[in-house]
């Protein structure tokens, strides 16, 4: 029986999955989707594990385990989680903010930046609109992933704020956008397969660092430009070390204080993990 593995359809995951595909000799079933869709499928047990929004684990930790040593993180600017606005950030107090439908972690991060760090009072509304379409309804618009990257290349008359940069400015910590999350119930009886997959992911996150130029051609991301794409991939970390863990716990603490999550989650790794973040 093969594992059902979620695969995020964003540029930040391309190197890891390319390296994983080259190293893995197992016949896993991959399910592509944006974070919000994969989060829902993981919760329902329709997939077994996935790189999933870090807030998804925080909202329901008893349903999941985490794979140690693995994340999608960045220290400082991430370039794919962006707030577009015609006003300077300091003038957004009281504004209605349009939110992407594709992510929950980035939405929580924005609420922390505005509500916790800047003490703003904002209202929020989900939307599929792009900045030019949203001008009449929203003071600012949050976009993520490939859509945010494309839009950042085409708009010149907007203020564009990188949420990773703002988080780092206020905390000095990396931000953990996604974790490798395992549905406890759906992997029952497949524990050895999970451990094997996690071991291959650990190998892939190391192997991909030296192969980034090889991944550009055929990635479907050539529109971003070769140098831009390599630079972008170099900002992404697949590690979950001490600093990332500190950033994750800080994110959960602020999310709890703002009522985004109901309790501070205990971070529990998949049984069989060896201390130090490896299998």
TrEMBL record:
Ranges in a coiled coil: none
GO process terms (BP): menaquinone biosynthetic process
GO MF annotation terms: hydro-lyase activity
Class of enzymatic activity (EC top level): lyase
Alphabetical keyword list: Lyase, Menaquinone biosynthesis
Enzyme Commission code: 4.2.1.151
InterPro entries: Menaquinone_biosynth, MqnA
Pfam family, one: VitK2_biosynth
Highest taxon in the source lineage: Bacteria
Pathway(s): Quinol/quinone metabolism; menaquinone biosynthesis
Catalytic activity: chorismate = 3-[(1-carboxyvinyl)-oxy]benzoate + H2O
Matching HAMAP family: MqnA
Function: Catalyzes the dehydration of chorismate into 3-[(1-carboxyvinyl)oxy]benzoate, a step in the biosynthesis of menaquinone (MK, vitamin K2).
Similarity remark: Belongs to the MqnA/MqnD family. MqnA subfamily.
Protein name, entry field: Chorismate dehydratase
UniProt organism field: Geoanaerobacter pelophilus
């Amino acid at each position: 029986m093969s594992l059902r593995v979620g695969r995020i359809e964003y540029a930040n995951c391309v190197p890891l999955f390319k390296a994983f595909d080259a190293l893995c000799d197992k016949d896993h079933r991959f399910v592509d989707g944006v974070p919000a869709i994969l989060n829902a499928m993981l919760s329902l047990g329709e997939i077994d594990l996935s790189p999933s929004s870090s807030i998804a684990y925080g909202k329901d930790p008893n349903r999941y385990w985490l794979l140690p040593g693995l994340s999608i993180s960045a220290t400082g600017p991430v370039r794919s989680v962006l707030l577009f606005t015609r006003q300077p950030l300091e003038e957004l107090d009281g504004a209605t903010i349009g939110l992407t439908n594709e992510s929950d972690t980035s939405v929580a991060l924005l609420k922390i930046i505005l509500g916790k760090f800047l003490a703003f009072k904002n209202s929020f509304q989900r939307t599929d609109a792009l900045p030019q379409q949203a001008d009449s309804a929203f003071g600012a618009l949050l976009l993520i992933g490939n859509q945010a990257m494309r839009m950042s290349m085409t708009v010149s008359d907007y203020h564009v704020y990188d949420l990773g940069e703002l988080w780092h400015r206020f905390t000095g910590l990396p931000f953990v956008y996604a974790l490798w999350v395992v549905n406890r119930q759906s992997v029952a009886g497949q524990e050895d397969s999970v451990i094997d997959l996690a071991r291959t992911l650990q190998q892939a996150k190391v192997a991909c660092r030296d192969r980034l130029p090889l991944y550009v051609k055929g990635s479907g991301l050539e529109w971003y430009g070769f140098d831009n794409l390599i630079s972008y991939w170099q900002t992404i970390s697949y590690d979950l070390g001490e600093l990332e863990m500190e950033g994750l716990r800080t994110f959960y603490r602020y999310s709890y204080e703002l009522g985004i999550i109901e309790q501070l989650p205990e971070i529990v790794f998949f049984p069989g993990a060896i201390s130090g973040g490896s299998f």
